[in-house]
């Protein structure tokens, strides 16, 4: 699967590293970075976005609304699905990158990145094995787990939201005016919900 990324002033760097580090069968074919000063109104967005691109999926980390609208329109014309987390536009627009649901149009990316999923093995109420089946493209789902092997279930349930929020790349000040939720708090919520679900389905190893 080939992905093209559009970012503005490094806005997608952490997620690019996460996809490259944890994704399988995925290639980021090209990264378009816009690092110049942008006016409040961009009259000719085609001066900043090269429309001669093709891919299986576009990840949109642009911030300027005129560029976002132009990119979405281009993707719709080309028939390319586009993920624009935290934005109100066309395409797939989850509240956060780790809030992305599964959809066949998203291919291998959608199978591996979005709402987190774990597989867990327990022994004596302690986690002895934990595998990330699906996680946040920023890598927080994977990074937050490095010290949990051997910990009790209760301890992990308390600590994982804080750990995820520490590694999360979302803007903590970006409160949604309707829900009142912060992207960082939302990330902690979806991860603890995924962990609880995995614990309900966990493999129980017999004590020696």
3D structure, described in words:
- This protein is 32% helix and 19% strand.
- It has 208 residues and is of the alpha/beta class.
- The longest helix has 18 residues, at 183-200.
- The chain is elongated.
- Helix 5 packs antiparallel against helix 6.
- Strands 2-1-3-4 form a 4-stranded parallel β-sheet, sandwiched between helices. Strands 6-5-7 form a 3-stranded mixed β-sheet, covered by helices on one side.
- The protein starts with a strand and ends with a strand.
- It has 2 domains: 2-93, Rossmann fold; 117-204, no CATH class.
- The protein is built from 6 helices and 7 strands.
How would you summarize the topology of this molecule?
Layout: E1 2-8, H1 13-22, E2 27-34, E3 57-61, H2 65-78, E4 82-83, H3 107-112, E5 117-123, E6 126-134, H4 140-143, H5 153-167, H6 183-200, E7 203-204
Parallel strand pairs: 1-2, 1-3, 3-4, 5-7
Antiparallel strand pairs: 5-6
């Amino acid at each position: 699967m080939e992905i093209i990324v559009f970012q503005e002033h490094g806005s997608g760097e952490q997620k690019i590293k996460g996809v490259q580090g944890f994704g399988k069968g995925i290639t980021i074919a090209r990264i378009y970075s816009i690092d110049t000063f942008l006016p409040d109104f961009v009259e000719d967005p085609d001066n900043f976005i090269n429309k001669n691109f093709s891919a299986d999926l576009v990840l949109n980390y642009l911030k300027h609304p005129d560029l976002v609208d132009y990119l979405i329109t281009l993707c719709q014309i080309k028939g390319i699905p586009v993920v624009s987390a935290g934005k109100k536009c066309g395409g797939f627009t989850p509240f956060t990158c780790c809030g992305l649901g599964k959809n066949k149009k998203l291919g291998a990316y959608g199978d591996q990145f979005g709402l987190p999923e774990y597989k867990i093995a327990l022994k004596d109420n302690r986690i002895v094995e934990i595998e990330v089946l699906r996680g946040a493209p920023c890598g927080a789902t994977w990074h937050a787990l490095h010290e949990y092997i051997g910990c009790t279930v209760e301890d992990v349930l308390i600590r994982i939201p804080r750990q995820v929020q520490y590694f999360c790349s979302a803007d903590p000040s970006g409160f949604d005016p309707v829900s009142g939720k912060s992207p960082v708090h939302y990330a902690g919520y979806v991860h603890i919900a995924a962990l609880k679900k995995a614990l309900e389905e966990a493999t129980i190893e017999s004590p020696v």
